């Protein structure tokens, strides 16, 4: 084994992200904020984007002491906002390009079928699927600038375990959400095949429950059911999202393309309570 070969396998090098550039949509709270912090701590220059300026400012106060971070108040469903975002990225990262695009901004709606409004269904689909497609397409020139055969540019879509299974624990159906996340997982595969030859990989992460604004209510009200639904008996922790992000963004994940990686403690493959375990506990 040559010395070069050995050093390319050193763990520090495998997961090194220093000097890369990233956009995290929905980076002002929840999983997006965790991922923005993770990237900054790894020496990545980060731009976050979400709709509300005050939330961007709050996040920046937390993130800027950790590294080079900027924010753009932009609604990813609006073409003119995406144009502004693209212009900003061009200005910030113009020469180097965009190494990592994290499509994380997402919306949800829960209601019984009779009360489920068409406009809410459309909004969830537009945010979770259409906007991911449009933003990725519009950022292709910048992603292309950062892409090489050895170190591809990365698109990382945040799906959900609800795109892999029919969600059960939150008491109200989330028809559009689970359909949108299943669509996002398949869009990920289609884009991976299309963009692979351009040295841009596209993967998705399918998280189970993590603490955030989106899940605050269900975790508080139905936390015991959520824990019972998971073979690991708990929700996810921030570093468990951070880890898969670093893998997908680094040399270690450079040949992973079109994957949908569940990070849910095995919940989506679990089929409810296991009778033999309940018997053991009695
Ligand atoms: N937390 C979980 O357990 C969990 C599980 C599975 C999947 N996910 C997925 O993870 C992603 C993040 O969710 P989260 O749980 O972290 O929720 P969150 O705390 O509510 O964060 C959502 C973020 O997206 C932004 N956003 C929403 N709509 C936007 C739009 N149209 N344009 C730009 N930004 C927008 C929000 O900021 P503004 O309101 O200021 O726009 C916020 O920063 C979502 O895609 C969600 O489906 C979460």
Secondary-structure map:
Layout: H1 3-8, H2 11-14, E1 21-25, H3 30-41, E2 45-50, H4 53-63, E3 69-73, H5 79-93, E4 100-103, H6 118-138, H7 140-146, E5 153-158, H8 175-195, E6 200-207, H9 216-229, H10 238-249, E7 260-263, H11 275-281
Parallel strand pairs: 1-2, 1-4, 2-3, 4-5, 5-6, 6-7
Bound molecules: NADP nicotinamide-adenine-dinucleotide phosphate.
Written description of the protein model:
The chain is an alpha/beta fold. It has one domain (15-281): NAD(P)-binding Rossmann-like Domain (Rossmann fold, 3-Layer(aba) Sandwich). It is 46% helix and 13% strand. It contains eleven helices and seven strands. A seven-stranded parallel β-sheet has the order 3-2-1-4-5-6-7, sandwiched between helices. Strand 5, helix 8 and strand 6 form a beta-alpha-beta unit. Helix 3 packs across helix 10 (238-249) and helix 6 (118-138) packs parallel to helix 8. The longest helix is centred in the middle third of the chain and has 21 residues, at 118-138. NADP nicotinamide-adenine-dinucleotide phosphate (NAP) binds next to helix 3 and strand 2. Residues 25-26, 28-32, 49-52, 55, 75-77, 104-107, 127, 158, 160, 207, 209-210, 212-215 line the site of NADP nicotinamide-adenine-dinucleotide phosphate.
């Amino acid at each position: 084994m040559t010395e070069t070969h050995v050093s390319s396998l050193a763990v520090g090098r495998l997961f090194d992200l220093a000097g890369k550039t990233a956009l995290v949509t929905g980076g002002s709270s929840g999983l997006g904020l965790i991922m923005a912090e993770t990237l900054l701590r790894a020496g990545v220059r980060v731009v976050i984007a979400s709709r509300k300026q005050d939330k961007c400012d709050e996040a920046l106060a937390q993130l800027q002491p950790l590294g080079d971070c900027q924010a753009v108040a932009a609604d990813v469903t609006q073409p003119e906002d995406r144009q502004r975002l693209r212009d900003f990225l061009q200005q910030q990262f113009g020469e180097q390009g965009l190494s990592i695009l994290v499509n994380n901004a997402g919306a949800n709606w829960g209601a019984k079928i009779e009360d489920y409004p068409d406009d809410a269904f459309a909004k969830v689909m537009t945010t979770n699927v259409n906007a991911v497609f449009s933003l990725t397409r519009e950022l292709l020139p910048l992603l292309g600038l950062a892409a090489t055969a050895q170190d591809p540019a990365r698109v990382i879509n945040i799906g959900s375990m609800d795109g892999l299974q029919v969600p059960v624990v939150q008491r109200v159906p989330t028809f559009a959400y689970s359909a949108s996340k299943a669509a996002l997982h398949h869009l990920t595969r289609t884009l991976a095949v299309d963009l692979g030859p351009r040295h841009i990989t596209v993967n998705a992460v399918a998280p189970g429950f993590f603490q955030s604004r989106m899940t605050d209510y269900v975790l508080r009200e139905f936390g015991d059911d959520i824990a019972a639904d998971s073979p690991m008996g708990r929700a996810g922790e921030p570093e468990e999202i951070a880890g898969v992000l670093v893998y997908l963004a680094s040399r270690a994940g450079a040949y992973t393309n079109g994957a949908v990686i569940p990070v849910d403690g095995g919940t989506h493959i679990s089929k409810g309570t296991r009778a033999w375990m309940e018997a053991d506990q009695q």
